[in-house]
Write a structure and sequence with these properties.
Rossmann fold; 13 helices; alpha/beta; 2 domains; single chain; elongated; Nucleotidyltransferase, domain 5; 38% helix
Length: 283
């Protein structure tokens, strides 16, 4: 009997939209920083429950030392993968094989792939072909093919903020500690600059918001009066640009970005049978 047919017959994912989505979080330790671990799982919690948490790498290598400090705290299962040939990355193959095995169990609604490596482009596309949602996490240097192969891609630079009261996280990771200490060395100051929270983004960053792109999306789905519900606007933006995130421009939410440009957009509450919903139109 075909393995794929056998598993899909006995194990089906829940169709209830109100149920928490079951997600598999797979981390490429060679291409991700331990400093973002807090932000990653806070972000994952927005989309569902991390039922599986695995991280792949050669744990005999000293460069993964920062990851070893946080594995127990987040109950992440380390998967050992030796580098069989110098210069070749065997970690990618191990992660991809595990992802396909998890896919065929039929137990998951989506995957979170944490890496800046374009080698996972085809994996993301294959998972989506099966109807699963794929969330990508990587640095801004991530090649665009991998970014666009995901349903949603989150740049990890915006996850490096250390919220007030999270001193324990800084103690676990020297990178986080140096980002909080303004009296650190020159290299630490560079890290601190990278860790500037979205709320402190410069006016220059805010001015780079893709207003014309947002305006086009609103215009494309607006009704005869020019109004469009903000929810569908956000969904369409993500479909067209998986990497779009208002936090990249200094705003926590899309609604805050819209409200920051009153000469460009009009936004208002609309009463619905379920309460209120925001809608927006062009000026």
């Amino acid at each position: 009997m075909d393995y794929r047919t056998h598993t899909s017959r006995h194990l089906t994912r829940p169709d209830n939209d109100e149920a928490q989505k079951r997600l598999a979080v797979l981390i490429d330790a060679d291409n991700a920083q331990a400093a973002i671990i807090d932000g990653i799982f806070e972000e994952v919690a927005k989309y569902g429950v991390a039922s599986v948490k695995r991280i792949y790498g050669d744990w005999t290598a000293p460069q993964l030392g920062s990851w070893k400090k946080v594995l127990l705290d987040y109950s992440i299962q380390p998967i050992q993968q030796f580098a069989y040939t110098k210069g070749k990355n065997a970690t990618d193959s191990s992660l991809i094989i595990d992802a396909m095995d998890l896919l065929y169990t039929g137990r998951f609604d989506g995957f979170c792939l944490v890496s800046s490596d374009s080698d996972f482009t085809r994996l993301a596309a294959r998972l989506r072909e099966e109807g699963l949602v794929v969330y990508g996490f990587g640095e801004k240097k991530t090649p665009s093919p991998f970014v666009f192969a995901c349903d949603k891609f989150i740049y990890t630079e915006i996850l490096r903020e250390v919220p007030a009261g999270h001193a324990d996280a800084a103690e676990r990771d020297p990178e986080l500690a140096s980002a909080r200490d303004p009296s650190s060395s020159a290299s630490s100051k560079t890290q601190q600059k990278e860790a500037v929270p979205p709320s402190a983004a410069s006016a220059k960053s805010k001015s780079k918001a893709p207003l014309e792109f947002i305006a086009k999306v609103i215009d494309d789905i607006s009704d005869e009066d020019g109004w469009a519900n903000l929810g569908p606007v956000g969904s369409n933006i993500s479909k067209l640009r998986p990497e779009f995130d208002p936090r990249l421009y200094g705003y926590k939410k899309l609604s805050e970005l819209i409200k920051a440009f009153p000469k460009k957009f009009a936004i208002e509450d609309q009463k619905t049978s379920g309460g209120k919903a925001l809608r927006v139109r062009l000026r």
